[in-house]
Specification:
mainly alpha; 20 helices; 74% helix
């Protein structure tokens, strides 16, 4: 590891704060576990998220510099991703507060695991070594595996956790095997050294393929997406919200850093460029097509998450060649991740608020649960409309600006055909998103349907997510400038 200074710890502050918050929640469970209610635990977690977000400020706008002997890097890019993770976890925590209380499963382990997972995501965003990326991936993944099985009772949570754990372990093995091949080819695992030592060859090519396959599982790219609907459905809905936005943001951050720094030639080569474009096109098409027939809203959002991974992969594929292309495509990916964090977490928060008390019921998340919601809960229906419109890419919401940045970067990089596919699949996505809106405003509610009383934490989560979604749609300038500066720092 070599030597390091106190300044090296500044970029690690978000991860340190997440870890300390997790320890505090665990200790509160030990010493205050006799309390009939645990309202203080989501409060501790929320304060931790705010503290971690504030700790990201010192690195925003700073030039890139290596820390810990090159194992990690301090730059604005990592700060933006950590800020994104903190925002996603805050929304998921506020959603979980009422969800866990309603299902009588309030335990400190839930929030501690979420905070440990967030610490892994923060570390992943600044990792500049393939081995450190692996360790950060495992810290994140093990926490999310446990959260997926948190309900324990019932077949769906057990199946979801089992599938996620097995496939996750398989993808980790593929990734670390690829890392070993790359080390054998170039003699190092640090990204900047790999960039200087890369000279082609079959061993290096095979290593890149395996590493890319490991990342493809984490971001749910086709054909590595099969786990997504079952895991998203079986996990507790607040966990699904955190998984959909946090894991995706951290994994795409690491993927973009690896592809831009370690393998710049791989992205500019025709073969690699074509493979990334094909992967993006397949992910966009398959994700949207499989979402269309879904009546289960939770599974529909799971398949739409796959489709959004396709749009983000298109941005990664557009980061080819010049520093300008990296800056434009990288900023588009960052902005898109932030818009998806707000809208995706908000949509899952609404699903959690409407979920039946028995998640094992066949119609636990059926479209009929949304029928007549505009009359029963007008503000919740309005929030869901904002989230779905943003996910569909309808102006003036944030999702429209995010897709605009991605498609513009793709066109400027010569990927006109892939951009056209992205636009067409976005139109297809608007169909199944707006179908939920039709049910909320134009279908009568069934008389026997009951909705749990609204809670203050859930309302706060919806207000935060809706405010971010609207603000980023009508005033994207500040975040767009920050994303552009962060992408430039990523490119070196």
């Amino acid at each position: 590891m070599g030597t390091f200074t106190a300044s090296d710890l500044v970029p690690l502050l978000p991860a340190i704060i997440f870890t300390l918050g997790a320890i505090a929640v665990l200790l509160s469970e030990v010493f205050l576990g006799h309390s009939p209610t645990r309202h203080y635990q989501p409060a501790i977690t929320s304060v931790t998220c705010v503290g971690a977000a504030l700790a990201c400020i010192p690195v925003l706008g700073e030039p890139s510099r290596p820390i810990f002997s090159g194992m990690a890097v301090a730059d604005s890019f990592s700060g933006v991703i950590s800020l994104m993770v903190a925002a996603g976890l805050l929304i998921a925590t506020l959603t979980a507060a009422s969800f866990l209380h309603r299902h009588h499963i309030e335990r400190g382990e839930f929030y501690a695991l979420a905070l440990f997972g967030a610490a892994g995501m923060s570390l992943l965003s600044l990792s500049a070594d393939l081995l450190m990326i692996f360790v950060s991936l495992e810290v994140m993944s093990v926490a999310v595996y446990a959260l997926t099985a948190y309900l324990r009772r019932g077949a769906r949570p057990a199946e979801a956790a089992f599938k996620y754990f097995l496939l996750g372990a398989f993808s980790s093995a593929i990734y670390i095997y690829g890392t070993a091949l790359i080390y054998g080819a170039v003699g190092t695992t640090q990204l900047h050294e790999i960039a200087h030592a890369a000279h082609g060859g079959l061993l290096l090519t095979a290593g890149v393929v395996f590493v890319a396959a490991g990342f493809a599982f984490k971001v749910a790219a086709v054909p590595f997406h099969m786990w997504t609907p079952d895991v998203y459905e079986g996990a507790p809905t607040p966990v699904t919200a955190f998984m959909a936005v946090g894991v995706k943001a951290a994994a795409f951050a690491a993927l973009l850093r690896v592809m831009v720094i370690a393998f710049p030639g791989a992205l500019s080569a025709p073969l690699w460029g074509d493979l990334l474009v094909v992967l993006a096109i397949l992910t966009m098409i398959v994700g949207n097509l499989l979402a269309v027939p879904q009546r289960n809203v939770k599974r529909m959002l799971a398949y739409s998450s796959v489709a959004h991974a396709g749009y983000l992969l298109l941005g990664v594929a557009a980061a080819q060649g010049s520093a300008m292309a990296i800056s434009q495509a990288g900023s588009g990916v960052l902005f898109y991740l932030f818009t998806y964090t707000a809208a995706g977490a908000g949509a899952f928060a609404v699903v959690a608020g409407l979920e039946r008390d028995d998640p094992e019921a066949i119609a636990a998340w059926d479209l009929d649960r949304f029928a007549g919601l505009a009359r029963r809960r007008p503000m919740m229906a309005l929030g869901m409309t904002v989230f779905l419109a943003s996910l569909a890419g309808i102006p003036p919401f944030a999702g429209f600006i995010g897709k605009l940045y991605i498609f513009r970067a793709a066109i400027d990089s010569g990927l006109l055909g892939a951009a056209i596919v992205g636009v067409l699949t976005s139109v297809l996505g608007a169909y199944y998103y707006l179908r939920v809106v039709v049910y909320m405003y134009m279908r009568p509610a069934e008389e026997h349907q009951k909705i749990a009383p609204s809670s203050m934490p859930l309302s706060a989560a919806l207000w935060i997510a809706a405010a971010l979604t609207v603000w980023l749609g009508i005033g994207p300038g500040p975040l767009a400038d920050l994303a552009r500066a962060s992408a430039q720092a990523l490119g070196g």
